[in-house]
Write a structure and sequence with these properties.
Layout: E1 3-4, H1 7-15, E2 23-28, H2 34-46, E3 49-54, H3 64-69, H4 74-84, E4 90-92, H5 96-100, H6 119-122, H7 126-141, E5 145-149, H8 153-165, E6 171-175, H9 195-200, H10 202-215, H11 220-232, E7 237-246, E8 262-270, E9 273-280
Parallel strand pairs: 1-4, 2-3, 2-5, 3-4, 5-6
Antiparallel strand pairs: 7-8, 8-9
The chain binds pantoate (PAF).
């Protein structure tokens, strides 16, 4: 399986492929799980070449401890890709110095109202960091299509905006959340949960599903109050936010309208591990 650590080596590899061959890209921060694998399988099926980038991007972490504790498991990631998809997958795993060219700093973007809510509000500078690395990776690999999971739904909307703002000629595809058997959304951070917290964390999706049901007859304010109350009674999970928004710009709204799509978003701490999830409401 070809693994590149240097941008020049990757560029050389791609300069040798036939014109007209399609490239699918799956940007990741490693610690791969079956959620990532579902993206890679889709990319592999739909393109002639598939590249998976594995890079824990320092500029998108607002909390240095979270960065330090983020799992880094390149050998296991490569083995999983080989076993679950194919050894033809190209892996790009640069160092921070390599991809940032020595200056590890975010660019600044204007993602408008999209960056002011939820992850943007609670994680200062996060989306500038995501924008910076995704712009670098897409510009370098020049894929026809790039695949991202809907667990990070706000990130997906930000990336769609990024490619518009920067005129990057790539199709951005969002793929459904993959869940563990108990409903917990798959995430690299789940690896850090104790067995007890892993079981308890199923409460997040269970609550989202009931919130969806309630939204059929109740207002966003009423459903939010109900969810807040559920978490107040939970001793192991701390709610950071629960928001119901319309499904594109992800803004709060006053009145439900029949023709609009809505989505609920949640961020929860299990000990010091931050988990996010979301659900379509109609
Ligand atoms: O979703 C992620 O894993 C990261 O935010 C991404 C898109 C790979 C950028 O570092």
């Amino acid at each position: 399986m070809p693994i590149f650590h240097k941008t020049d080596a990757l560029k050389n590899h791609f300069s040798a492929i036939s014109k007209g061959d399609t490239i699918g890209m799956v940007p990741t921060m490693g610690a791969l799980h079956l959620g990532h694998i579902s993206l890679v399988k889709k990319a592999f099926k739909e393109n002639k070449h598939t590249i998976v980038s594995i890079f824990v991007n320092p500029t998108q972490f607002n909390n240095p401890e979270d960065l330090e504790k983020y799992p880094k498991t390149l050998a296991a990631d490569v083995a999983l890709l080989q076993k679950e998809v194919s050894k033809e997958i190209i892996v790009f795993a640069p160092s921070a110095e390599e991809i940032y060219n020595g200056t590890i700093k975010s660019s600044s973007y204007n993602f408008g109202s999209l960056e002011k809510v939820m992850e943007g509000a609670f994680r200062d500078g996060h989306f500038d960091g995501v924008g910076t690395i995704v712009e670098k990776l897409l510009t370098l690999a020049q894929p026809n299509t790039a695949y991202f999971g809907e667990k990070d739904y706000q990130q997906l909307q930000i990336i769609k905006k990024l490619v518009q703002l920067k005129n990057i000629p790539v199709r951005i595809i969002g793929c459904p959340i993959v869940r563990e058997e108990n409903g917990l959304a798959m995430s690299s951070r789940n690896e850090r949960l104790t067995p007890e917290l892993r079981i308890e964390a199923a409460f997040i999706y269970k609550t989202l599903k009931t919130a969806k049901q309630k939204f059929g007859t109740k207002s966003a304010v009423q459903v939010t109050a109900w969810v807040t109350d559920q978490f107040q009674q939970n001793k192991l999970l701390q709610l950071e936010y629960f928001n119901i928004t319309e499904a594109n710009e992800l803004q709060p709204f006053k009145r439900k309208s029949k023709n609009r799509k809505y989505r609920a978003f949640i961020a929860v701490y299990a000990d010091d591990i931050r988990l996010i999830d979301n659900i379509s409401l109609n």
